[in-house]
């Protein structure tokens, strides 16, 4: 008589298949856009601070941020020269509540202070970036 103390190939395949199914269901899906709104909010704040600084360095600076909510983009411009274009992913929308242009005086005071809202259309989560009137301080609101 033979002593068969091992597993058969079929038993091994069935066990691996069951473990695979359980793991596929149990592990949550990882969102590719995790942290995207935080990254884009920080980039917008840096761009606002950049144009504010340029206005304070040069009295007649014509730096501005032009926001296009229909295409979910904004441009950092000096006069008519586009220095930078930022496009948000299709899943996100942007809206600025005080017109479509952000600029500053030579003292750093915002001309069109307001709030930029970034919204994730899938989860309906929002992130707001506020430019404070009078001081020009830029704040990311949670």
UniProtKB/TrEMBL annotation:
SUPFAM superfamilies: Pili subunits. Coiled coil: none annotated. The keyword Transmembrane helix applies. The keyword Secreted does not apply. InterPro entries: N_methyl_site, Pilin-like. Gene3D superfamilies: Glycoprotein, Type 4 Pilin (3.30.700.10). Pfam families: N_methyl. Keywords: Membrane, Transmembrane, Transmembrane helix. The chain crosses the membrane at residues 6-27. It comes from the Bacteria. PROSITE patterns: PROKAR_NTER_METHYL (PS00409). This is Prepilin-type N-terminal cleavage/methylation domain-containing protein. It comes from Sedimentibacter acidaminivorans. The lineage of its organism: Bacteria, Bacillati, Bacillota, Tissierellia, Sedimentibacter.
């Amino acid at each position: 008589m033979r002593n068969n103390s091992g597993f058969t190939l079929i038993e091994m395949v069935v066990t691996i298949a069951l473990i695979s199914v359980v793991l596929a269901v149990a592990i949550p899906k990882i969102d590719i856009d995790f942290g995207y709104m935080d990254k884009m909010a920080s980039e917008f704040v840096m761009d606002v601070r950049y144009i504010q600084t340029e206005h304070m360095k040069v009295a007649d600076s014509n730096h501005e941020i032009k926001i296009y909510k229909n295409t979910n983009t904004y441009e950092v411009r000096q006069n008519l020269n586009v220095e930078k274009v930022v496009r948000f992913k299709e899943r996100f929308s942007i809206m600025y509540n005080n017109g479509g242009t952000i600029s500053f005086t030579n003292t750093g005071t915002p001309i069109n202070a307001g709030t930029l809202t970034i919204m994730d259309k899938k989860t309906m989560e929002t992130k707001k970036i506020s430019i404070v009137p009078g001081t020009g301080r830029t704040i990311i609101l949670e």
